[in-house]
Amino acid sequence: MTRALVLTSSILDGNSLALAEHFQARAVEQGGLEVTTRDLIADDLPHLALPELSSWQVPAEERTAEQRELATRSNALIEELLAHDVLVLAVPLYNLGIPSQMKAWFDRVMRAGETFRYTEKGPQGLVEGKRAVILAARGGQYAGTELDSQTPHLKSMLGLMGIREVDVVFAEGLAMGEAPRKAALQEARKAIDGLIQRLV
Predict the structure, then answer these.
(1) CA distances in angstroms from 92 to 87, 115, 170, listed in the order given
(2) How far is Cα 24 from Cα 28, in angstroms, rounded to an integer?
(3) Residues in the chain with pLDDT < 50?
(4) pLDDT for 132-160, tens place per residue?
(5) pLDDT of amino acid 104
(6) Residue 145: closest CA among 123, 172, 126
């Protein structure tokens, strides 16, 4: 069975959460897709600080009790990522970027020697055989414009880890009136339905 890890990151009871819920509901209906969800707002991961970063650079057998505790957070998130076949990112657009809570997650799973490594030819991803889905909810219309810095940022971070097969479902214009909002969400739900059929 295909396993999907769904990450939500909205501080509001908003549209990206609705897309994630639709993905999960359709996955259950379709069958063949086991879904795990992680709410990055509820997790409340702190911004990455030097003590935690330093704990990764100390051999496990040499870590202090504090370093072991700090390293456990990142280790657990990486193990969870590696245990799934598909990573689903439900992402609102905040000030043209990703929520800081999602950035805190990426800061802990993007670890040299764990999910990528440096070589003479440049960085090489170590997370192989996986794919990602981005469920992007935006108030305005940004896809395909210079203002959409979020999509290439996410693809670059995923690609650094070796996840290069990425599907993006956009729901845009969500703050431009009720009719455009409903139409955009309906189109996004249809795209998710078709995507799930391909995932299983």
Answers:
(1) 16, 25, 10
(2) 6
(3) none
(4) 999 999 999 999 999 999 999 999 999 99
(5) 98
(6) 172
CATH 3.40.120.10: does it fit domain 2-199?
A: no
Q: CA-CA-CA-CA torsion for 44, 48, 52, 55, nearest 10 degrees?
A: 130
Are the CB atoms for 185 and 15 separated by under 8 Å? yes
Q: What integer pLDDT is reported at residue 13 of this predicted model? A: 80
Chain Cα centroid distance, residue 162: 14
Nearest Cα neighbor of 161 from 78, 92, 38 is 78
109 within 8 A of 81, measured Cβ to Cβ = yes
Q: Binding site membership for FMN: which residues?
A: 10
What's the pTM value of the predicted model, to 2 decimals? 0.95
Amino acid at 83: A
* Domain spans in the chain, listed from the N-terminal domain onward: 2-199
